[in-house]
Amino acid sequence: MKKIVAIANQKGGVGKTTTSVNLAACLAGESCRVLLIDLDPQGNATSGVGVDRDECDTSIYDALVGLRTVETLIRPTHTENLDLIPSTTDLAGAQIELVSADDREFRLRQALEKVPDDYDFVILDCPPSLGLLTLNALAAANTVLVPIQTEYYALEGLGHLLRTIELIHEHLNPALTIEGILLTMYDSRTNLSEQVATEVSTHFGELVFQTVIPRNVRLGEAPSFGMPISEYDRSSRGAISYRDFAREFLKRNGHGGVSASA
Hints:
11 helices, DNA_Partitioning_ATPase, ParA family protein, P-loop_NTPase, AAA_dom
């Protein structure tokens, strides 16, 4: 049975898409079958796995508005075991088109019922907002993973996001759990990164993954080449960290998530 994981944070620049792409690729490298769905109209997850969004004539938009069934939108990537449903510029209009629909929060959940069961994981890369696309992801997901950067204002908005997750758990998706919080952009040369990491761990305890993703030049370069870091430079600190994270994720996944009402 596939597990659906939303990767969400309403703040931009926290490593959300980087985590979506590289967790998906590293899980694929661990012999899991993975489907990555790009729900961000910016389409960075699409280009990050080497797919030119300008050449895509269909996207997840088509499933959300009922034009296509989701299984017809799946395309392979150059990464073994990793498939993609891309984003295109059409997705930006989906929130407006769906705003008056009675089932607007459940369009993605309904669409994902058609995803083949031979996938182990479906990774949802959410836009940096708490709008209708993110609500659809949280209503469809089994778990939500929250990346936060180890920088000033890291906790800004996190409480609001967690309250939103709790409300969705209570009213829209009682199966939703919190997979955990991932610390990103960690810079061991600064006291600030250590202070933020300590503060987050103090506040959120077992929710915080032990693996920390470092600030890494090669990790920042990989998207411009349309490659996950595990393929762009598998010996880099960024690649090693995401492989470690994928293994920790798999271990934690075996024990289930943490209740969204926790």
